[in-house]
Amino acid sequence: MRIVVIGSVAAGTSVAAKARRNTENAEIVVYDQDKDISYSVCGIPYFVGEEVESIDKLTPRNATWFKKRYNVDIFTEHRVTHIDPYKKELQITNLQTGQAITDTYDVLVLATGAAPVTPEAFIDQKWDNVFQVRNIQNAISIRAFVDTHKPKKATILGAGFIGLEMAEQLFNEGIEVTLIQRGKQVMKHMDPDMAFRVENLLRDKGIRVLLETTVAEVVGTPFVNAVKTDTSEIIDTDMVILATGVRPNTKLAQEAGITIGGTGAVQVDKKMRTNVSTIYAVGDVAESYSLITGKPIYRPLGSTANKMGRIAGDVITGGCLEHRGILGTGIVRVFDMAVAQTGLTEKEAREAGYDIAVLYNIKPDKADYLGGIELTIKAIADKATGRVLGAQITGINGVDKRIDVLATAISFKAKAEDLFHLDLAYAPPFATTKDPVLYAGMALDNALKRNPLITPEELIKKQQMNERLQIIDARSPKQYAVSSVEGAINVPLADLREKAQTLDPSISTITYCNKGVTGNAAQNILLNLGFKQVFNLSGGNKNYQMYRHMKK
């Protein structure tokens, strides 16, 4: 059997390695139009910012290593230009010599990845200081430009993972950064109220953030010296980074009659097979599917690409692995903040038809007396079943382990009540006695059963509709005087039992404190006293004020 793989980054090399581990009887050949193989795209910003000292750290393996280790022939700088699925033939161009080559296969794997999206103003033109962030040559070029030209100002288009990482790294190099985002928020895969926390941090650090903005015109040649936005603002710049996302490289697949899914990526089954029986697709060119909804999704990540490659390599050589879907879990460091997400966002859950409970949980990552620092967990659960559907977290420390626990729980269809019963590691330097994950589960479970939550957005909508409400601030008068929810009256928790008789138990009541715990205590008192409907404001006044700030 002759296995040919097109593409040699995360997915393609995983196919070859797993296939060889399973059998010594197959011929395995890999073609790639790039110069480098098996490199870390995600590490590029950190090489640019010199956190990674040598480019060799991002390219630990080469074709010679693969040949010795796996007896796999990898041909770099070879572009596959045509697939004939009937003859099982490939047309290939050697990019170094221009030579045309024909090759055959028994099984073909498309690992052609994704190409960076180029904004309209930059299409079909080249400048010496405009860079994509997609491969090792890009990394070398950006680092060389920074070292040689000492830019003072940089403009970054796109506020996803790569855009934010590049903003951090260039800013740390002493470069003034302007971040331009077409959409209404940074990090489009998060809910706006969580993404706003990231935007605030960027602005506090000194990054200029322009939302709902595009570049209409590029000024200067062969070096860009300014960009003009669609609002006619001229932004002086010494370099431009294009980080406006990627799209799957499906040209070869389409020409070969392979079905493209609704996401725009190649449609595959759980064994990574396309509609053409002898052709598989893996990595950033292929779509995945949601573990929660079962519907196709496209989230190009190296971790998913590796899994897909391993599955295809196993299946091709007689194995029984299957792709089990993904949650779209991701994490990024933005200066001293970690930002993570898994599963469905609030918006996605509602669009999928779920009736959900939404929790904002603000808790320290470890014991206060050992320097615990707040992290914010936004978690959602299905009211009908109690199943946890997704979570987003921002914080300084401990974000990674909490999102991984939640991703694991969601993968195994945990309910909110199950989170509370997890036996997580506890010691004061690492966690609180009631870990933020446990507390999130407890509070969500309470919300589903007896203690309903209300988000700042929901509260404000009720007020805008002139719904009759009584809002109880259960904090101290001193805290209330500093800032409070609009329309709230101050009844400190210690006085609530006595003063409850002055309140109307038939009116919808909202209790709150600074973050949520005392508000929940007040909610319990009123419910036990027979109040008809009592909500606790999720995330308390702190979360409410953040939401109000976002809406200004």
TrEMBL record:
Metal-binding as UniProt keyword: no
Domain annotation Rhodanese: ranges: 465-552
Spans traversing the lipid bilayer: none
Alphabetic keyword roster: FAD, Flavoprotein, Oxidoreductase, Redox-active center
Source organism, top-level taxon: Bacteria
Cofactor(s) for this UniProt protein: FAD
Molecular function in Gene Ontology: oxidoreductase activity
UniProt record similarity statement: Belongs to the class-III pyridine nucleotide-disulfide oxidoreductase family.
Protein's UniProt name: NADPH-dependent 2,4-dienoyl-CoA reductase, sulfur reductase
UniProt organism field: Sporolactobacillus nakayamae
